[in-house]
Write a structure and sequence with these properties.
The complex is a heterodimer of chains A (713) and B (173).
Chain A lengths: L1 H16 L9 H11 L9 E3 L27 H11 L7 E2 L6 H33 L23 H9 L23 H7 L27 H19 L9 H13 L5 H8 L6 H10 L2 H16 L13 H13 L4 H9 L3 E2 L11 H8 L4 H13 L18 H8 L5 E4 L8 E4 L14 E4 L5 E4 L2 E2 L2 E2 L11 H10 L2 H16 L19 H13 L4 H9 L37 H14 L23 H7 L7 H10 L4 H13 L5 H12 L4 H18 L1
Antiparallel strand pairs in A: 2-7, 3-5, 4-5, 6-7, 8-9
Helix pairs in contact in A: 6-19, 7-19, 7-20, 8-10, 11-12, 13-17, 14-15, 18-19, 18-20, 21-25, 21-26, 23-26, 24-25, 24-26, 25-26
Chain B lengths: L13 H18 L4 H16 L2 E3 L3 H22 L9 H12 L5 H12 L3 H11 L5 H8 L3 H23 L1
The chains are: A mainly alpha (713), B mainly alpha (173).
C-alpha cells in the first residue's frame, strides 16, 4: 500500500516536472476571497489550537471542518417514512435522516450552535452600526470617497445634525439602509412604498394596501407615464443631492436621439431619421420617437436578440452544442415582444415549456429552447441556477453545497427549488439532432411518486430530503404529472415573487444604462445592495401594476433624466464612477456598452440603404499583397497621421485581391477594430460586400462603418 | 527555507501563512488525485476555512500537518457531494509517505532531484514518461509510438519510476 502511495506522489512530481503543472500563487485570490467574505480570522469565538507536538498526523479536538470519513448512511423507505412522520410538524421540507452521529459530532454541533448564537449577536451589533454609517453616508454602497477637487456640498455631520438636514431635504426621506433579504422595504409596511413614490407637490389619493405575505402579488394602482417619469427623476435627484453630485448637462436633442436609437434598436439613426426627429415639435418629439421605436420592427428584432443572449447564457455562442435552435427562440421572443405579451406570461411559458426544439418536429415548441440550453451537462442543477439568475437575479450555484451568504439562500432552499425540475428530461437522439424537453413522472428518491422527494447531501454530511417549495410556499408533494405540474407551479410562484419584478427592472435598467442598481444583474443578495433601493422598489411595483409591460418600463427609463445627461465626466460628477467599483448615480451617461450587436445593426442598415445590383467580384484578379511587406495593417494605421487618409492606400488592394469575402471581412475587422468579427457581424458584412456594385466601393464603405465604430469607442 | 510565520495569534499574518504553506498544500492535493483546478479551489478553501477561525501556530510542522488534514477533509467533502469515492484508503499511511517526500521544503529538493534523474533515464523510458505526463498520451498511444505492446509500455514506465525513486534516494542520502 505504501508503495502505491509513493507511486502516486512520484507521479504528481512528474506531472510538475514533465507536464509543467506548477503550483500557482493563490495568495491574492485567497486574500481577496477572505476579504469578500468579510470574516476576519479572529472574530469567531471558536478557537482551534494547533498541537504543541510536531506530529505528521494529528487529531483535533474541535474542528469546523467536515469529519474525515463519516459515511452517508443508506436509508430505506421505512426509516425515511418514520423520520418524516416524526419530523413532519416542525422541520419543513428537509429532513435529516443520517444516523451515524458520533459524540464528537454532537459536541461539534453544540459548539457550532453556540458559535452561531454569539455570531448572531455580533452581527446584530454590526448591523446597527451599519445603519448608523449608512445614515452618515458611509455605507458600503457609497461611492468611493477621495479628495474632491472642488468643495463638496456634503460635509460630515453629527447624527442629530444629519437627521435635521435630512428633514430639510426638498424630497423624500433618506433611503432606508439595505437589509439583507428584507425585500427592499418591509412587507408589513407597504405604505412606505406609496409614501416614497408620492410627490409632495402632486399628492395622490391613498390606496390602502393590506399586509402582504412574502409572495402575494400585490398590484398597486398603476400610475400614468408622466408620473412615473417624474418619480424616476426625483429619485435620481435625491441620490445626486445626497452625494453632493451635480448631474452632467443635457446632451442635446441630436445626441439624445442617437443614444436612444442605439439603446432601443441597437443602431445609429440614419440621416433621414435624425432630420425627421429634429423637425418635430420640440416638446413632443422625444416621447414620439420613443413610442415610434418601441413599435418598430427594429426594436422587436434587437430585443429578441438581447433576451436570447440573456436566456441562453453561455450557450448563446454555440447553441448547436446543446441542440438548441437560437433562431427559433428569437422568433418566439420576437412574437412575444411584437404582441407586447406581458413579461410574466412569457416567463411562465419558458419555464413550463415542453416539446422539441426542432422546427420540423410535430411537437415543436420554440420556448423549449431555453430549458434545453439551461439543462446543459449539469442537468437540473444548471437549470435551477439559470432560472434563478435570469428571473430572480441571484446566483444560486454555490447554495447547492452550502448556505450561501452571497445570495442569501440556504442549501435547503436551493434543493427545494431544484425539486421543481424533476419532472423533465432532455432528450437528444444524437449529437447532431435538436434537443427536446420531455415531461416525465417523477418517482422520488425512494420510488414513491405520490410523495416524491429528492435527496441531497447536507452540509453535515447527512443525506437530506427536499420537496418542491419556493421560498415560503409549497406545492403538493406528488411527482405525477396528473397530480401536479411542478414547473407550471414554479412559474406561478416565481412570477409573483418580489425578486422577480426587481430582477426584471434591474436587468432592463442595466441594458439601457449600462449599469443596474445591483451589479452584476444576477448578483442580488445581502452583499449587493441596490444603489437606489426606493427607485428599484417603486419601478418594480409599478411594473407589476402595469401587468409587466416591459415597453412601458423602457419608456419610463428612456424619457427620464437618466437618459438626458451628457456622457462627459465633469468635476461635479466625478463621484459617479461605477466603472471603478463605486455605486452608479446615473449623473452622467455611461458609454462603451457592448457594441458588437450595435455594429451588426449598423451593418444591416447599411445593406438596406444601398442600391442593389449585380455584384462585380474581383475574384479573377491575381492575388497579391495589399499591405506593404513586414508591416501589419494596425501598424499602418497607427503610424500614419490622419486615419481618414489611410483608407485609400490599402483598401483598393484589399478590394482587388482574390481573397474570399470571409477573409476580406476578417482583415477589415482586424485592421480597424483589432478583433475578429462575430459570426453575426461577419454575415452582415458579407452582405454589404455582396450588395455593392463593385468591390472597391463595398470595401470602402465597410471600412467607413468600422472606422466610425472605432471612433465611437 | 521560508520564514516561519509569527507565533502569536495577534500577529498572525494571513498573507504570510498562505505564502508559507500554499505550495505544500497544493502539491499534497495533487498527490491525492486532484487535478490542478481542483487543487486550486481546495487550497483556497483550506486557507479560508482556517483563517476564518481563531488559529494558534505551534510551529511549521504542526501547522503544515493541520493544514493538510483540513485540505483532506475538504477533498472528502467535495468527493462525497459529487458521488465519487475518495481515492485514499489510508490517509495516515499516505501522510507518512508524503512527509517522507516533502520534507521541510514542500518537496522542492526532491523535485530538483527528480529533474536530474529524469535526464539519466534511457531515451525510450524518458520518451514514455514524456508522452504520459507531458502529452497526456494513453498507454496504447505510448505503446504504438514505441512499437511495443501495452503491457510492455506499462512495464517500461513502471521500471522507469522505480529507477527514478532509487535515483532520488541516492541523491537525497
Amino acid at each position: 500500500m505504501n508503495g502505491d502511495y509513493e507511486d502516486r506522489i512520484l507521479e504528481s512530481g512528474l506531472e510538475e516536472v514533465l507536464g509543467g503543472q506548477y503550483p500557482p500563487d493563490l495568495s491574492a485570490k485567497i486574500l481577496q476571497e477572505l476579504d469578500r467574505r468579510r470574516v476576519s480570522p479572529g472574530e469567531s469565538p471558536e478557537r482551534i489550537e494547533a498541537p504543541p507536538t510536531v506530529s505528521p498526523v494529528v487529531s483535533w479536538p474541535v474542528s469546523p471542518l467536515p469529519p474525515a470519513a463519516s459515511p452517508v448512511v443508506a436509508v430505506d423507505a421505512a426509516d425515511r417514512r418514520a423520520e418524516r412522520q416524526s419530523a413532519a410538524a416542525g422541520t419543513g421540507g428537509a429532513v435529516g435522516i443520517g444516523r451515524s452521529a458520533t459524540a464528537r459530532r454532537h459536541s461539534t454541533r453544540w459548539v457550532m450552535g453556540w458559535t452561531a448564537a454569539v455570531s448572531s449577536g455580533v452581527l446584530l451589533v454590526l448591523f446597527a452600526a451599519g445603519i448608523y454609517m449608512s445614515r452618515m453616508g458611509l455605507g458600503p454602497r457609497a461611492p468611493m470617497l477621495v479628495q474632491s477637487p472642488t468643495p463638496s456640498p456634503v460635509v460630515p455631520l453629527e447624527p442629530n445634525q444629519a437627521d435635521s438636514q435630512l428633514d430639510a431635504l426638498p424630497h423624500r426621506e433618506m433611503p432606508a439602509p439595505w437589509e439583507p433579504d428584507s425585500d427592499f422595504l418591509a412587507p408589513e409596511d407597504p405604505a412606505a412604498i406609496a409614501s416614497t413614490m408620492e410627490s409632495p407637490d402632486a399628492p395622490i389619493e391613498e390606496t390602502p394596501v393590506e399586509d402582504r405575505p412574502a409572495l402575494a402579488q400585490v398590484r398597486s394602482e398603476p400610475w400614468d407615464d408622466a408620473r412615473m417619469i417624474d418619480f424616476v427623476d426625483r429619485m435620481l435627484e435625491q441620490q445626486w443631492h445626497q452625494h453632493g453630485v451635480t448631474p452632467a448637462a443635457s446632451p442635446g436633442d441630436d445626441q439624445w436621439c442617437q443614444r436612444v436609437y442605439r439603446r432601443l434598436v441597437g443602431r445609429d439613426p440614419t440621416e433621414y431619421e435624425l432630420r425627421q426627429f429634429l423637425n418635430e415639435a420640440p416638446d413632443q418629439r422625444r416621447a414620439a420617437l420613443v413610442d415610434r421605436l418601441l413599435e418598430s420592427d427594429d426594436y422587436v428584432r434587437y430585443w429578441s436578440q438581447r433576451w436570447s443572449d440573456v436566456l441562453l447564457g453561455s450557450a448563446a455562442d454555440k447553441p448547436e452544442q446543446w441542440g438548441v435552435d437560437r433562431q427559433g427562440l428569437e422568433q418566439y421572443l420576437a412574437a412575444a415582444i411584437q404582441e407586447n405579451k406581458s413579461y410574466d406570461e412569457w416567463t411562465a411559458e419558458l419555464i413550463s415549456a415542453s416539446g422539441s426544439c426542432d422546427p420540423e418536429a410535430p411537437d415543436h415548441d420554440p420556448a423549449a429552447n431555453f430549458l434545453a440550453a439551461a439543462w446543459g451537462t449539469e442537468g437540473s442543477i444548471a437549470a435551477t441556477d439559470r432560472v434563478s439568475r435570469v428571473w430572480l437575479g441571484k446566483q444560486l450555484v454555490c447554495a447547492q453545497c452550502h448556505d450561501d451568504p452571497a445570495s442569501g439562500w440556504n442549501q435547503e432552499e436551493f434543493w427545494q427549488l431544484n425539486a421543481f425540475f424533476q419532472q423533465m428530461r432532455i432528450h437528444r437522439a444524437s449529437e447532431d439532432s435538436f434537443a427536446a424537453v420531455k415531461e416525465v413522472d417523477f418517482h422520488g428518491g425512494t420510488g414513491i411518486a405520490q410523495d416524491a422527494e429528492i435527496f441531497y447531501p447536507g452540509q453535515d454530511g447527512r443525506l437530506r430530503a427536499a420537496y418542491p417549495r419556493f421560498k415560503s410556499e409549497s406545492i403538493p408533494k406528488s411527482g405525477l404529472l396528473a397530480d401536479v405540474h411542478r414547473r407550471q407551479e414554479l412559474a406561478r410562484l416565481l412570477t409573483r415573487s418580489p425578486d422577480f419584478r426587481r430582477a426584471a427592472v434591474n436587468r432592463v435598467w442595466a441594458k439601457l444604462l449600462k449599469f443596474g442598481f445591483i451589479e452584476p444583474v444576477d448578483g442580488a443578495g445581502p452583499n449587493h445592495r441596490p444603489s437606489h433601493p426606493e427607485l428599484l422598489e417603486g419601478l418594480s411595483e409599478q411594473l407589476a401594476a402595469h401587468d409587466f409591460d416591459l415597453k412601458r418600463l423602457t419608456r419610463w427609463i428612456v424619457l427620464s433624466r437618466a437618459f438626458d445627461v451628457s456622457d462627459q465626466r465633469t468635476p461635479e460628477s466625478w463621484l459617479d464612477s461605477p466603472e471603478t467599483g463605486g455605486a452608479p448615480l446615473f449623473a452622467r451617461f455611461y458609454t462603451e456598452p457592448d457594441r458588437s450587436m450595435d455594429l451588426h445593426r449598423s451593418l444591416m442598415v447599411a445593406v438596406r440603404t444601398r442600391p442593389t445590383g449585380p455584384t462585380l467580384h474581383a475574384s479573377k484578379l491575381a492575388r497579391r499583397s495589399w499591405t506593404p511587406s513586414q508591416v501589419t495593417v494596425p501598424q499602418i494605421i497607427d503610424t500614419q497621421g490622419s486615419e481618414s487618409m489611410i483608407g485609400p492606400l490599402w483598401l483598393d488592394r484589399l478590394a482587388a485581391s482574390d481573397m474570399s469575402a470571409d477573409k476580406k471581412v476578417e482583415h477589415l475587422f482586424r485592421a480597424v477594430l483589432d478583433r475578429k468579427p462575430t459570426t453575426r457581424e461577419a454575415t452582415a458584412a458579407k452582405l454589404v460586400l455582396a450588395d455593392r456594385m463593385n468591390d472597391h466601393l463595398a470595401v470602402r464603405e465597410l471600412w467607413q462603418i468600422l472606422f466610425a465604430e472605432r471612433s465611437r469607442r | 527555507m521560508k520564514p516561519a510565520i509569527p507565533q502569536d495569534r495577534a500577529d498572525l499574518d494571513p498573507a504570510a501563512l498562505i505564502e508559507r504553506y500554499q505550495v505544500g498544500i497544493w502539491r499534497y492535493l495533487r498527490a491525492l488525485g486532484c487535478d490542478p483546478a481542483e487543487a486550486d479551489d481546495l487550497t483556497q478553501e483550506t486557507f479560508l476555512a482556517v483563517l476564518q477561525h481563531s488559529f494558534v501556530d505551534h510551529g511549521p510542522a504542526a501547522t503544515a500537518a493541520y493544514l493538510r488534514r483540513v485540505a483532506y477533509n475538504q477533498l472528502v467533502t467535495v468527493r462525497r457531494r459529487s458521488g465519487k469515492v475518495t481515492a485514499v484508503e489510508d490517509i495516515e499511511q499516505f501522510d507518512r509517505a508524503w512527509d517522507d517526500w516533502a520534507g521541510n521544503d514542500e518537496g522542492e529538493a526532491r523535485l530538483d532531484a527528480l529533474r536530474e534523474c529524469v535526464q539519466q533515464l534511457t531515451d525510450r523510458a524518458r520518451m514514455a514518461l514524456d508522452m504520459r505526463f507531458r502529452d497526456r498520451a494513453s498507454r496504447s498511444e505510448i505503446a504504438a509510438m514505441l512499437a511495443i505492446s501495452e503491457h510492455g509500455a506499462k512495464n517500461l514506465m513502471q521500471r522507469a519510476k522505480q529507477q527514478l525513486r532509487a535515483c532520488i534516494e541516492r541523491k537525497m542520502a
